[in-house]
Amino acid sequence: MYRQPSGGVIVRPSRARVAPGDGSLGPVPARLAEIARNLGVRIAEARANGWLGEVQGLQTSLDQAREKVVALDRLACTARGGPVAIGMPVIPPVLG
What we know:
This protein is mainly alpha-helical.
């Protein structure tokens, strides 16, 4: 989140943090879906007006929102599955 010179605040979806807690991610995926729909409408408007730079920026935001949804889905699956086995580290013998 950062402040614009106009006084507005921008929240970047790619920086959103979610704690799975009880396994329910709450309204975050629905909000990201709403953001993605809105970005799709804005991309269509920018294309219709020939604002190619705007299209590129909005497309980047849309890609980030989609990546966040995928990450949240992955997090939800992992949270329900219990602990993740990462193995034991291998410590090489000391030569000397």
